[in-house]
Give the backbone structure.
Amino acid sequence: MLLGAATSAHQVEGKVQNDWTLWENRGKAPPVGEACRSWERMEEDVELLKEIGANFYRFSVEWSRIEPDEGRFNGEAVLRYRRFVDHLLKAGITPMITLHHFTNPIWFYATGGWLREDSPIIFGRYAAFVSSFFPDVPFWITVNEPNVFAYQGYVIGAWPPGKRSITLALKVVKNMLKAHVRAYGEIKRNVKGASVGIAHHMRVFQPVGLLGRIPAFLRDYTFNFLPVYAEVKGRILPPAGFESLGRTGDFIGINYYTKDRVRFSPKDPFGVEVYPEGVWRNSLGWEVYPRGIYETVKRFSFGKPVIITENGIATESHSERVEFVSRHLRWLKRAKGEGINVKGYLYWSLLDNYEWLDGYSAKFGIFTRTREKKGDFNIKELWERA
Ligand code: BGC
């Protein structure tokens, strides 16, 4: 079993200049500042991984560093990640590289970003460049959470570029899925035997009342089902369109955090969320529902290997985090016992990193932002005991 933790470049590295930097400068999100200084200190993160008994690490490479201007690639930046990967491999930790984790180079953003017709081609070219440096990295995520990216940036406008249009959001999802297909081909060409997939954010949508089944179904279909179906079956379904893509998922990557309770609303086909008292919640108010990891894995494995590419809790309490992980691992083990090919589990996150609109107030880390230990945590033992 592959066990470890996950991070993303913008959230830990510091000293980045991308579309989020513009967003932060406009006061739309807290400033990322130096983050966890992983750009300088990423080798220290290998020590932390060893300390928690990890044999697997997921991190992202920052596109804006690697392609600072359109079509101009910076080999130095990739070599910095290359040195890091050498370090991981030497420590016996299997790397998983994410090519896109929410942030975009400013030139890409300024010229239309994921609405550009040629965005899949542009992304494919970037994927080809990066993967040529890593013929020994066995696991790749092309894009992280196309559904969350499109929802936040193009439906509710909370993230860059701050648009509010379902039509645009569906176009973005479609372009990201096409970009995934391109990147998939490039990685497979450069890395023999690579396993390539998407990290899908999946939630349990629990209907409240009989009519709640309508919005819960609509959310489940568009948010959970549509992207993973496109990846695995090679077809984009309505309302995103009708399009054949080609089958391009070697494993199913699942980021699982929470359950939403959804009630019917005459004003919105997607309904409204309800928040009953007395349920376990993280410090951001998200309901903790460990059984959901089992339900999700069972529903969306499509007979393929499954990797939990993120699962975590924002909390001030270390013991609550240990409890959270133990409970989720127990349910995951059950799914494995029932025949689902669960290959890996990555805790989000190794460090208390930058949490998008919540800045540094949400503490997901096993270690603090400055790498202090919060308490005993051994992922291997937690899995064995689960
Ligand atoms: C994202 C992470 C984020 C985490 C917690 C995931 O959806 O991939 O970047 O920090 O959730 O909100």
User: Anything to note?
Assistant: The two ends are 13 Å apart (CA to CA). The CA atoms of residues 147 and 227 lie 7 Å apart.
